[in-house]
Amino acid sequence: MSTLWTQNLVMRPLTDDDFDSFTRLHGDPYMTAKMHRGALDVLEARELFAAYRKAFATDGFGMRAVCWHESGEMIGECGLWMRESAGGYTLRYMLFRNWWGKGLTGEAARASVSEAFGAIGLDALYAVAMDGNAHSVKALLRLGMAKIEDGHRGIPGFGRYQLSAQAFQASRN
């Protein structure tokens, strides 16, 4: 379960070589403006990067570098991340701005959801998004997720979404 391939993407475990791209991704104030936590500084990025890698090593799945298949360039991240406050494993994704609008977020997210309900065997998958992040909310709804909570963690405009394995399987038939 280490690497996932899609039509346009290679989704692989993060490596030390990805840290600079990871830091740019999470430190960009424009891209993180519609996220509840905002941009990360280098120390915060290092902590999250290490946590992603540790979780992947422990679980055998998790957050991955999303790479353009033609060049191998890291263009973002996507995968599963345990968030007890959200109800379990959550789908997370973020691509660099120059890769937006090409359908790649959905492509990466579908691969992660398929893995979650296939090889991993989860019963449900969650996601969180700020209401003002219309593109992210739209991507979640396209995947079949339903909004199950407004004001998640007491944060106004912070929604929690869920997709069950049963609903996912029904949507594929």
Question: Can you characterise this structure?
Answer:
By secondary structure, the chain is of the alpha+beta class. It has one domain (4-172): Gcn5-related N-acetyltransferase (GNAT) (Aminopeptidase). The chain is built from six helices and eight strands. The chain has helices spanning 19-27, 29-32, 42-59, 104-117, 134-142, 165-172, and strands spanning 4-5, 9-13, 63-68, 74-83, 88-95, 124-130, 146-149, 158-164. The protein has a five-stranded antiparallel sheet, with helices on both faces. Helix 1 (19-27) crosses helix 3 (42-59).
Whole-number average pLDDT?
92
Give the SSE order as H and E letters. Answer: EEHHHEEEHEHEEH
Low-pLDDT residue spans = none
What share of residues are in beta strands?
Answer: 25-35%
Q: Mind telling me the CATH class?
A: Alpha Beta
Structural class: alpha+beta
Number of contiguous helices: 6
What is Rg? 15 Å
Provide the fold topology.
Layout lengths: L3 E2 L3 E5 L5 H9 L1 H4 L9 H18 L3 E6 L5 E10 L4 E8 L8 H14 L6 E7 L3 H9 L3 E4 L8 E7 H8 L1
Antiparallel strand pairs: 1-2, 2-3, 3-4, 4-5, 6-8, 7-8
Name a few traits of the molecule.
8 strands; Aminopeptidase; 28% strand; 6 helices; single chain; 173 residues; three-stranded antiparallel β-sheet; five-stranded antiparallel β-sheet; alpha+beta
